[in-house]
Amino acid sequence: MESLENTSCGCAAQPKRQSSGLKHPLLVYLPLAAAGIYIWWLLYSNLLNLSSFFTFSVLNLDPAGRLGSSLQFFIYDTPKVMMLLVLVVFGVGIIRSFFTPERTREILSGKSEFAGNILAALLGIVTPFCSCSAVPLFIGFVTAGVPLGVTFSFLIAAPLVNEIALGLLYGLLGWKVAALYMATGLCIAIGAGWTIGRLHLEKYIEDWVSQMNTAANTSAEEKMTWSDRLAYGWEAVKDIIGRVWIYVILGIAVGAGIHGYVPEGFMASIMGKGSWWSVPLAVVIGVPMYSNAAGIIPVVEALLGKGAALGTVLAFMMSVIALSLPEMIILRKVLKPKLIAAFIAVVGCGILVVGFLFNMVI
Q1: The whole model's pTM is what?
Q2: Which three-class secondary structure string do you get for the chain?
Q3: Among 7, 157, 220, 355, which one is least packed by beta carbons within 10 Å?
């Protein structure tokens, strides 16, 4: 489990707004970017062949053996996931440079509640916030007049439907699984936020939060150049990869163990469609096993490969990311236990519905 001091959730610092002085940075960087993408794709598309050659020819391991199968999975998935992370984080880092906390609060303030729930969930995908930002964001949103339900839609969507999860799901499992995850994650964030808003639980916010100065931050934002945004994207890569790489390696190692040593059909027997209790059990197991999205997706890949049902695996992944114990402990600083319990119950019910629904229709 991650510590509260370093939650490794990929929350990069806000960019330093310093102009590089280049008038046309895109003309300088575009050829370099094109060459870099071509080299990236050339290497990425040959990872499977390279990993097989190293494992079965250089190390001379048996392709049908458990050790050979596990090691080939690890050697293949490690550079694959890391390369996907670099590409995804850099691209979204540029998008994130357009969203400061002040701008996000400004966008969400003054909206009707249901429209605010939808907008908050969508903003949660691209904004650079996560469980480590939960307390300051919650305080900022509440004191800026953002409704409680809208605030929760954002806090649920930001870690659950983040760009790293979507990018890795697309790269490892295809666009259909990524699209299903995004759609269901957004539905949970919107529905849970709306439900919490209907319950009128504002009295369960800690008193000191409500008593804080509600004056809006009106400081002017400095305009960033494209050179600044490109630099911010690269800083996001260094910051996020530096935080999550160890969890990625651990997640891939667990996935490799499942891939090589778990018998075919075993996961189907405990995480398949046949047992009604598989989805609740996956959620219960997932909460204390907190990891970031980058670390849990290789495990998801291995579980699906061993016959686990898609709905059960999605429920497991969502519970690991959205109902983490560290985030609940962090939120306890600003929420009273009854509101935290309501949050867990509403989000947990949404995850269970997703799990049961996909096991029924897919």
Answers
A1: 0.65
A2: CCCCCCCCCCCCCCCCCCCCCCCCHHHHHHHHHHHHHHHHHHHHHCHHHHHHHHHHHHCCCCCCCHHHHHHHHHHHHHHHHHHHHHHHHHHHHHHHCCCCHHHHHHHHCCCCHHHHHHHHHHHHHHCCCCHHHHHHHHHHHHHCCCCHHHHHHHHHHHHHCCHHHHHHHHHHHCHHHHHHHHHHHHHHHHHHHHHHHHCCCHHHECHHHHCCCCCCCCCCCCCCCHHHHHHHHHHHHHHHHHHHHHHHHHHHHHHHHHHHHCCCCHHHHHHCCCCCCHHHHHHHHHCCCCCCHHHHHHHHHHHHHCCCCHHHHHHHHHHHHHCCHHHHHHHCCCECHHHHHHHHHHHHHHHHHHHHHHHHHC
A3: 220
CA distance 195 to 170: 30
**336 pLDDT more than 80:** yes
Q: Is 196 left (phi over 0), alpha (psi -120 to 50) or beta?
A: alpha
Q: What is the mean pLDDT of residues 198-220?
A: 68
Q: Contact 186/153 with Cβ under 8 angstroms?
A: no
Block residue for tokens 């960033």: 224
* Phi and psi at residue 294, to the nearest 5°: -65, -35
Q: What does the pLDDT average to over 82-94?
A: 78
Strand partners, 335: 205
Taking a C-beta distance cutoff of 8 angstroms, is the pair 297, 255 a contact? no
Least confident interval from 77-91, 101-115, 207-221, 293-307: 207-221
Phi then psi for residue 191, to 5 deg, are: -65, -45
Are 240 and 7 contacting, i.e. CB atoms less than 8 angstroms apart? no
Amino acid identity at 205: I
Non-local (6+) Cβ contacts of 292 within 8 A are: 2, 7, 8, 9, 10, 164, 244, 247, 321
